[in-house]
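Hi all, long-time lurker, first post. I run a small reading group and we've been trying to get comfortable going from sequence to structure in the token notation. Rather than ask abstract questions, I figured I'd post a concrete chain and ask someone more experienced to write out its structure so we can walk through it together at our next meeting. Sequence below, copied exactly:
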Amino acid sequence: MTMKDYRWCAATAAALVLTGCGSGAESDSGSGKAVALTKGQVREALPDGEAMSGWKESARPTAVKMDELYRREACPIKGNAGCENSRFYGVSTFRHDDNAGYVSFLVIAYDSEQAAREAYDVLWEGYYGKKAGPAAKPFELGPIGDERDARFGSSGFQGEPGAVTQTRVGTTLLWTETASMGKGGIDEDRVRDLAKVWAERARQAQNGDAPSATLGG
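-- Answer (accepted) --
Happy to help. Here is the structure in token form:
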């Protein structure tokens, strides 16, 4: 992820904050099946300050109803492909003073597992998979979510590291976008940890539980 991409994420987060938040319609959580999340559940699933020990919030967890504006932001592909049957879009962002690292957590919540599954390859191959740079290389995330991909590359002119992950958890697609101003700020293990806590929180929300997964927990 380039620093330009990070600034875009921060700007998107700011735009989301300005719109305000609220809860959506009731969902059938707790059935053991992947369910469509409400707007409130999307916001609660996003990692917050309590979940991110050692990191500072740059933009609080925020979720908005997916509309034409946010489809352009979340699915910037011809025809906004990948946003079909999407319901909500959310983001939270953090920085780490010790290693000059940044991370943005993003989510698109769909109305069904099938919709999320159909959007997965469209968005990874058409947009998100390219955000770690042209020389980025894939790496394994391990058993996270129902589907997962990750690429690690450079985020700056001097080889500063950056990475992007995409994970499907039931009816949601999740992303982590990380970058660091220094070469030691972000590595594959740190990226895996960030993707794991995000996936766990999304799964907890779809199980009808209050998201409680924390970094290193």
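A couple of things your group might point at:
Residues 1-15, 17-32 have pLDDT under 50 and may be disordered.
The first helix runs from residue 3 to 19.
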